[in-house]
Amino acid sequence: MKPSAGGAKHRNTPFVIKESSDRFNRAVQSNLMQVTIKGRNGKHVLLPDGRDVVEFVNCSYLGLDVHPSVIEASKSVDETWGMNFCCARSRFSIEPQRELEEELSELYRGRVITFPSTTAAHISVMPLLASGVLVDEDTTHRMCLIFDQFAHSSMQYLKPVVAAEATVETVRHNALDDLAQQVRQARERGEVPVYIADGIYSMGGLCPVRELLDLAERLDFSVYIDDAHGMTIFGDRGEGVVLSEVEGDVPDRLILTYSLSKGFGAYGGGLLVAGEWRERLIRSYGQIYAFSAAQTFQAVHACRAVVGLHRDGTVQQLQGALRERVTLFDELMGQQLPFSPIRMVPIGGEEDALRAGEWLLDEGYYVSVVFFPIVRRGAAQLRVCLAANHTPDDIRGLTAALRRVRTSSA
């Protein structure tokens, strides 16, 4: 994005609103955005106008958000802990929260800190990363944060903040040659480079994790990856798309953020680092940790139940079911793609995409219609989130409707 007349380098909010508000309003009026559902039964939801539709928008890819043991655990608020303890975690944490973090640290092979959301984790750790204090203990470095073009909005949003203390660059999506060039240029300036990316991108596609980690080892740079969409659905231990490529403990050069809400199926987020000294810095100086509240107590208990489902084989069984659903979807759509629960259906024009979303709703299927500024102008798409608790008939019905949409769009 070019600088605005006011000199803003990383944001131009008035332009974005001007270019997109009409379509946002149309989507809201059509029950495609900002919908308050009136009921829920598995993957079926009840719209305000009374229509019962199958949703393909929930990112609980294994259906753990409705697993009986998770729901039961979320009711475990008692007289000891109550509903909440309203103070920052820099003052108090409850014992079950500490136990959850230790359980996740063992599961993910590093030091874990939990937060109310993945975005809260980014707000806490990315400014510290930009300041140069998380590379080496007791040493500060000048940093260069290199963002993948499609890194999640929750990280892109912090560009103006991290730019106060670090050089900020952006490279083309998954372009490792461009990344290598930026890394070398940063080193020539005396800066420590860090690549900012997603494990699974929210608009589809995966990070080339193995190639990236090999490049980071060869060129000596750090990697900060948001694996919100990958945790629990990848790896024998549910460790995600990134850690499933790592042997042993989390590497020193890797900082990982994750979600406890998506594939994990409960609520919250967190980060994973190597070294207790990094953990101490983040607990002392991370913005949300120092000045805001923790996860709700219900979420803590639910998360601990999900850890148990990782240990007893339930997660591995549901991973297999999810892969079957994704394979069925791809076969019916006539495509072969790397495994991911997110599938995108390109439409092109924004109006065409909105009409497609409205028509699918009439057919009984809710999918996300995505358009500028979520994607570039003229590249509107339909976003389908597949889950283990979709039935094969759900997927057959949706793909039949999508094929008709694709034919009419062509």
Architecture blueprint of SSEs:
Elements: H1 13-29, E1 39-41, E2 44-46, E3 52-55, H2 68-74, H3 95-108, E4 111-115, H4 118-131, E5 143-148, H5 153-156, H6 159-162, E6 166-171, H7 176-188, E7 192-198, H8 209-219, E8 222-226, H9 240-243, E9 254-259, E10 269-273, H10 276-285, H11 287-291, H12 297-311, H13 314-333, E11 342-348, H14 350-363, E12 365-366, E13 368-370, E14 380-385, H15 392-409
Parallel strand pairs: 3-12, 5-6, 5-7, 7-8, 8-9
Antiparallel strand pairs: 1-2, 2-3, 4-10, 9-10, 11-14, 13-14
Helix pairs in contact: 2-12, 3-12, 7-8, 13-15, 14-15
Explain the overall architecture:
With 410 residues, the chain is α/β, with parallel strands linked by helices. The protein has two domains: 13-59 and 341-409, Alpha-Beta Complex (Aspartate Aminotransferase, domain 1), CATH 3.90.1150; 69-311, Aspartate Aminotransferase, domain 2 (3-Layer(aba) Sandwich). The chain is 41% helix and 17% strand. The protein is built from 15 helices and 14 strands. The strands form three sheets. A seven-stranded mixed sheet has the order 4-10-9-8-7-5-6, sandwiched between helices. The chain has a four-stranded mixed sheet with strand order 1-2-3-12. A hairpin with a 2-residue loop joins strand 1 (39-41) and strand 2. The protein starts with 12 loop residues before the first helix and ends with a helix. Mean pLDDT is 94; it is low at 1-8.
